[in-house]
Amino acid sequence: MQHLLGIDEIDAGAITAILDKAQDYADKLKQGEWDQTRLKGKIILHLFFEHSTRTLTSFEMAAKRLGADVINWNPETSSLTKGENFIDTIDTLTSMKPDAIVMRHAEFGAPKFVATRAKCPVINGGDSWREHPTQALLDALTMRQNFGKLEGLNVTIIGDIAHSRVASSNMQLLTKMGAHVSVVAPEILMPESLPFPQIKAYHTLEEGLPGADVVMTLRLQKERMDKALISDAAYFNEFGLTFERLEKFCPKAVIMDPGPLVRGVQMEDSVAEDPERSLILRQVANGIPTRMAVLDMLVGG
Ligand code: CP
Questions:
Q1: Is any atom of ligand 1 closer than 6 Å to the C-beta of 159?
Q2: Tell me, what's the pLDDT at 69?
Q3: Is this structure's pTM higher than 0.70?
Q4: CA–CA distance, 83 with 292 (Å, rounded to integer)
């Protein structure tokens, strides 16, 4: 593996190898014993053209836990603001020869394009609605820790499936690993096609929730909509997770959300904070060992 640009480019064997290494790092972090010099002398360049809390911070922590140095380039203070174009910016930055680039961009396939020009590994930290591979990997790690496996799990993803890169990467990863994926969305937020024919699509919670082991919610990706396609109130009314709905349709399911979580739209507070059901903060914590594993495998060689 030279880059990590999308789950579409890796098979079940590669996914398992990353998850095994991520679990190894999770165990070592817990014990306080890991090779803190694994990436000593390496410089990781973060090119985040879109805002981030979880992905940017956890990539930085992962790199620093492995001894690498990190540069957080900021488009808002860069020479892009003076009229330099995207390609010249990328060529300028890659000619400085970083050891890896982690990139987030609103344009479809932007990290793939950068990988054709950079002489170092490129890791996709999320592009458009296409892919967010490390999010799907940390979600899978979280499910594997909770259930001991991915194969045969029933995972229901609720929300803005059409505009979500998390949904896109998760549908691919989970199906490749033998999980059964269902998606639930209002018609206006359901894509025209899904990546695999066995993924089931529903338009009500009543149809999509029964039998779920995992319920993953997604926010309305308003930044990728030309206009509001559904109001927050109408969305919560039909698709919001409530304690009552969970008790009725899937009382044993765990709840996941990649964040940012918009409370009162995706779910009510009591669900987000339910210590028995909610794995949301465990997902965030698993971002560190997952990204350590990816950086180790791509940059540590
Ligand atoms: N899940 C996720 O990508 O969150 P951030 O946008 O905060 O990185």
A1: no
A2: 98
A3: yes
A4: 35
